[in-house]
Design a protein that fits this description.
Layout: H1 2-11, H2 18-29, H3 55-80, H4 85-93, H5 95-100, H6 102-114, H7 118-131, H8 136-151, H9 163-172, H10 182-201, H11 204-219
Helix pairs in contact: 6-7, 7-8, 7-10
Length: 220
Amino acid sequence: MFQLCLFHACMKPHSVSGVEMRKRQAAHIEAPPQAPGQPRPNTCCLCWCGCCKCLWNEDRIERTERQTCTKMDSIEAAEEQRPSLEELLSWSRSFEMMLRSLEGREIFRDFLRSEYSEDNLLFWLACEELKKETSPSVVDEKARIIYEDYVSILSPKEVSLDSRVREGINQSLTEPSNTMYEEAQLQIYTLMHRDSFPRFLNSSVYRDLLDSRRRTCLDT
């Protein structure tokens, strides 16, 4: 009988209390950093949730940060290469092509801002957006906003339109449509094309960017 009891005592699993488990985890978390080249300690039972300071979790965080930085560097490098040299050269051949390019519009807008004529481009873009609308209520709202922002003599952003075109717009306000600014838009387009665009091509804004892309192509 004594031998049977002793056998059961030896086979009984050793249980660890909750207090003891927390002490072991705390000792592991508060342990001094592992010296380089030494084997890492056993990870604690909470590594899977990322809430401890074990080396496994630190390595995981470091890998994530490296991957994020690499991805951001790739995005920034791609943005720095836009627009391409070929696209820049195409702008000099076609004003329309430059306006179709998001980068082209932004660079041209910066130039117009330096000449205090940015509102011409903003008016043209607002008219383009109005043409896309089909809802009568939206057309009515946007048409009146354009009028108040760019056409009205009380507007601080008033664009240069002749009296005939301006009078036609005033009459169209009774029944606004998505094409009511077409003639005015063409007039501003012609003004930018004939007046602002040639100066833009000869400006340091465009030429410096062009030279930069050429140097990049030579380096590669």
